[in-house]
TrEMBL record:
InterPro entries: CobQ/CobB/MinD/ParA_Nub-bd_dom (IPR002586), DNA_Partitioning_ATPase (IPR050678), P-loop_NTPase (IPR027417). Residues 7-217 form the CobQ/CobB/MinD/ParA nucleotide binding domain. It comes from Bacteroides fragilis. This is ParA family protein. Pfam families: CbiA (PF01656). PANTHER family: P-LOOP CONTAINING NUCLEOSIDE TRIPHOSPHATE HYDROLASE, PARA FAMILY PROTEIN CT_582. It comes from the Bacteria.
Amino acid sequence: MNKETFVAFATQKGGVGKSTVTALVANYVHNVMGYNVAVIDCDEPQHSIAGLRDKETALIEQNDRMRAIACEHFRKSGRKAFPVIRSNAVQALDDAESLLAEGDYKPDIVFFDLPGTLKSDGVIKTLSQMDYIFTPISADRFVVESALQFVMMFNDNLVTTGIARTKAISLFWTKVDGRERTDLYDLYGKLFAENNFHVLGTKLPDSKRFRRDMSDDRKTVFRSTILPADNAMLRGSRIKELAEEICDVIKS
């Protein structure tokens, strides 16, 4: 990648795991695939990703075992933890430009975690400057309808008019329950195809592992902004496949 790429996981419906997926994909792309990344956490007031980084940093400072694990990871990988910038939708682009201007660290991909409503100040402006947007959806009629409205509005009002610099918007399934009817996904798939919406092939399962943060009483970690996800927990999570597919979209 010759120039930094701006990527957002965006939706106007909460509860589909947007922040969790942002953290997991950014972590995998940085620690496993070897790209330099940065995360701009604009989802105030909760700032879930920045809060996770604060929690992890404090734990590593206070816990000898976790500090040893982190030091060994940094030594072996030769990579530092990627920056997580606490921001908001209004200041996000300025904060990203400030990071890029510093010169000490050049991210290949800057991930933006935006509020779950387009009505928040600055969200539309920030989204218009994304190179790629990935929208998580679950097999719920309200979530799907909301996603359709979001993609159609953004494409019709911003992309086709040339206001947005966005090259592609892709939907992807998350919180997939293996017990759900496959014909439900087929039905939605036909709906997306009829509207020429691009849907990633990777589907993320509904799994408790997505909430497994670093802890002083756990030997393994999955959701992290510092340490790579445990290999055993990574298998079956589909995060590897999602991260690789997203990078393929960016490089294509």
